[in-house]
Design brief:
The structure is a single chain. The protein is an alpha+beta fold. The protein is 33% helix and 27% strand. The strands form 8 sheets. Strands 14, 19, 20, 21, 22 and 23 form a 6-stranded antiparallel β-sheet that branches. The protein is elongated and about 110 Å long.
């Protein structure tokens, strides 16, 4: 009937109907109904006592082996999937609908792992062997009425590192900020992933630290050799930085993921493959053949035992070489030999170079799992390659890892970075032009995210001298009619109907990126002529200049005056779709571009940035 049933055993106390059940993450759900089953029939109960088994409805976050309430430990599956197969669907099947159905099976069967590969739009399943695929095929046919097949199986590999390394992740596009430093250390085989923090709460707030640890544990992190999940590693948060105004939770997710990937690129990674522990029973006359086969398959074995005419051979060998050996054994022993295998963990891959070459994985081209970081300079974000990140990062490993570094020295570095950040000033030439034409500017401090302290030191300023007096090449200015451009784009126009301020801010961010790429002086003008008593305002937003016109002054009038003044000595382009305004601009000696053409130019700029980043990667 579409109801999700959770079968559980009460180990202590009483479980009552409609009682809230609390999970380890603090989330709670109600036990809507308690069912006591006998075959396919059941009776409802008001409460269930200790040592009784029941089925509960209303729980949506449970999974097999989970401990709830006072039971804080999970029961892990005894078997772990080591083979992966592509599920091939009949033509015309809804792939996403089928994925949701298979997720139901995954919840019920803990030995199943369903994997969705977004890039190729394929569903893969991880299982223990071929027999399990036959059972799964039958279950899908019976429950969903879909006849599926399976592609060729492949091994589920893992990756780890050989020596400790520090990983750095930085995420700082416009109006966002987060930096994370992780110490990544190898552990013994079979240890899995362990997460910890040694970062002081004076340096990074405890809530941010918990968030970083959550991001580390919330997903499987791909390695850089073939993109396999990493394991057998301790990852410790050793340093981090947030911004009081601009940091959001998603910023630390990006910085954390990038720190893991950057650390893996800096370290020497090794490929791990699953091993079987096998026990073989066969006629003694075939023992020599069996021992030779195991050696050819890169396995090891103990001294063989003999019980009458039967020999027993035990050892370990890679799953990739042994998963089909049962058939071969039955063939040359004429059905008298048998082998049992169980997973013995992961060991160094016997043919690592061959597997890496066959996979053809390029960690630099994996856009879903970037290895570089995003920094910000002059109001525009830019991507830094993984091997160049240490040169740009704002926290330095020698400060965080060497204990002899004093707190005073650390504070001094923070103060120096803050002073460099606050030293940004308005462009003197543009300021002089506007003051002479329209009166004094209303100053505002530049964004606190600009530069963040890694840009080059500012040189002493020289007395201002207009460029046309020096007779040097002209400067390029771009004047933008803000509302004309905003309402010419469908998405921003729809947003403006709901939240005009939000639409304005989004347009300003787009133009900041455009200015950072084109390096023109950009002046964005918004109409404010209907606001009574408005004296006008000129402010700097990151790397562009934003003007709100005064009472009774339209954006068109402002742009005409500015063009008349600037076009005398400089190259001026105006963005507007107002036909009359375009004629006036041409008459003043300026260039003009329509809003529609300008949006096309912005789209081309974004494509060039993406293509350039992929080429550099």
């Amino acid at each position: 009937q579409g109801k999700r049933l959770t079968y559980l055993k009460v180990t202590g106390g009483l479980l009552k109907v409609k009682q809230e059940i609390e999970y380890r993450d603090g989330e709670k759900e109600k036990a809507d109904q308690l069912r006591l089953y006998s075959g396919i029939k059941y009776d409802t109960a008001d409460c269930v006592k200790a040592r009784e088994v029941c089925a509960v409805t209303g729980l949506t976050h449970t999974y097999p082996g989970q401990g709830i309430g006072a039971e804080q430990e999970d029961i892990l599956p005894a078997l772990e999937p080591v083979l992966t197969y592509q599920i091939q669907l009949p033509e015309g099947t809804d792939v996403h609908g089928m994925l949701q159905r298979l997720r139901e099976l995954e919840e019920e069967e803990p030995e199943l792992q369903i994997v969705w590969k977004e890039q190729v739009k394929e569903i893969h399943v991880r299982v223990m062997g071929e027999i399990q695929t036959e059972i799964l095929q039958s279950m899908i046919q019976e429950r969903f009425g879909v006849e599926v097949s399976f592609g060729a199986g492949s091994i589920v590999y893992r990756e780890t590192i050989e020596e400790p390394v520090e990983g750095v992740g930085h995420f700082e596009p416009l109006r966002h900020y987060a930096e994370v430093h992780l110490l990544m250390e190898p552990l013994e085989r079979g240890s899995g992933l362990v997460f910890d923090t040694s970062c002081s709460v004076d340096e990074l707030d405890g809530n941010w630290q918990k968030l970083i640890l959550t991001h580390l544990a919330e997903r499987s992190h791909p390695g850089v050799l073939i993109g396999a999940a990493i394991t057998d590693m301790k990852i410790t948060l050793i340093a981090g930085r947030a911004h009081q105004k601009h940091t959001e939770g998603g910023d630390f997710r990006q910085a954390t993921y990038r720190a893991v990937r950057q650390g893996l690129k800096m370290a020497k990674s090794i490929l791990l493959e699953p091993y079987y522990a096998f026990r073989m029973e066969l006629p003694a006359e075939h023992l020599g053949r069996a021992m030779t086969d195991i050696q050819k398959r890169y396995g090891t074995f103990e001294h063989p035992e003999q019980q009458g005419e039967i020999a027993i051979l035990s050892g370990k060998a890679p799953v990739s070489t042994m998963h089909d050996y049962a058939r071969e054994l039955a063939s040359y022993t004429h059905g008298e030999g048998r082998i049992s295998c169980e997973l013995a963990g992961y060991e160094h891959c016997h043919n690592e170079e061959e597997v890496v070459a066959q996979t053809g994985y390029d960690s630099e081209a994996d856009l879903e799992n970037p290895t570089g970081s995003v920094f910000c300079a002059h109001g525009a974000g830019f991507v830094v390659r993984w091997d160049e990140v240490p040169q740009y990062m704002h926290l330095h490993p020698e400060i965080r890892l060497h204990k002899e570094q004093t707190q005073e020295e650390t504070t001094e570095v923070f103060q120096r970075e803050k002073e460099e950040q606050d030293s940004a000033i308005l462009d003197k030439e543009l300021e002089a032009i506007f003051e002479r034409t329209f009166g004094p500017l209303k100053r505002k401090l530049p964004s606190e995210t600009q530069g963040m302290g890694y840009e080059k030191k500012h040189k002493p300023e020289k007395p201002y001298v207009p460029k046309w007096d020096k007779k040097k090449p002209v400067k390029k200015y771009l004047l933008v009619d803000g509302y004309n451009l905003l309402f010419s784009q469908k998405e921003l126009g729809e947003l403006a109907k709901i939240n005009l301020d939000g639409a304005r801010m989004k347009l300003m961010d787009i133009l900041c990126n455009y200015q950072g790429y084109k390096k023109q002086e950009l002046i964005l003008v918004f109409d404010a002529y209907r606001v009574k008593g408005n004296i006008g305002e000129v402010m700097e937003y990151h790397n562009i200049h934003v003007v709100y016109t005064k009472e009774a002054q339209t954006a068109d009038a402002y742009i005409e005056k500015a063009t008349h003044e600037l076009a005398k000595k400089h190259d001026v382009t105006v963005v507007t779709s107002d036909g009359l305004e375009q004629l006036i601009i041409l008459g003043q000696g300026g260039r003009r571009i329509s809003s529609r053409e300008f949006w096309i130019e912005i789209a081309q700029m974004e494509n060039e940035i993406r293509e350039g980043w992929i080429t550099e990667s």
